[in-house]
Structure prediction request, 368 residues.
Amino acid sequence: MTKIPMLNLARMHEPMRRDLTSTFEAVLDSARYINGPSVLRFEKDLAEHVGVKHVVAVSSGTDALLVSMMALDVKPGDEIITTPYTFFATAGCIARLGARPVFVDIDPASFNIDVTAIESVITDRTVGIVPVHLFGQCADMAVINEIAQKRGLWVLEDAAQAIGAKQDGVMAGNMGLVGTYSFFPAKNLGTLGDGGAVVTNDDALAEKIRAMRGHGAKRKYYHDFVGGNFRLDALHAAMLSIKLPYLNSWEDGRRRVASAYEDAFINYPKIATPVADGKNLHVYNQYVIRASDRDELKERLTQAGIGCAVYYPMSLHVQPCFEYLGYKEGAFPESELASRETLAIPVDPLLTEEEQGMVIQSVLGDVS
Prediction:
């Protein structure tokens, strides 16, 4: 039995349990389950939190990526640059539209896309760049935006794991043309199911995404585009509005836990801890360490009842579904090494000192 899970959602929900329950009853009684005031209120609340003009709430983080690319007119044969070390949805959405994911290796310190390698893969078919702000830390957006502007490309920030993260004071999702969030339960801001959002300061793009969310119709039954059913349920929106005010304190809690881990592991060279540079405010959606004996460490933690997980065990460029892209093992060595060495450990914002001590003791084990 897991004594310390990766994230104790029941404990996080306890202080707001009455509000969540009453919100469920209010939505139930309203009979407004699709769109309506709950969704509009959450979009307004999130726009103020992020500092962005437009928020379009959607059905998942994956659908946020997909509808954004559809609105950007991604077509078969287009090339889009991204990272092979991320959740499948990033490249999967590119492929679903018939476009070609073009991978660039990661920076080994941040796990984010290596910006120094982006320009070398740009061709006359390249239309955009999708940086992923992995584990709660932003990719180098200043360099990415400079490259994009010079080459006439759009930038779509995959900020599924990074709501609340900042770079030079600007929040993740608000630095490119468009950004996307996920509200999967385990995210820093999670609903009680699936959910996501698209954010942008571009008026025309926001209007198009809003229409595409509802099958491409600005007016019911009048379709300007071929969209999809990408709506966020009113119940999820209402729950998210309850949870959003807690987000800053949860982020502080995650950073507190991360700081304790850093202090504990700093003198153990066999364990590499996350690196947050000075211009980034990390929100630690995951706290990911590196160890050459990762699999043995994972087994030891599991036996001790400590939650842990591998993000990600197989780089996207060697996944069977992307074999047609022609990449081979060894094409992106840093991504492949990370897939063998990384392990996420509990970074629950409400983790007690005693629980932190148990995690630290289990990680160190016989490490010397």
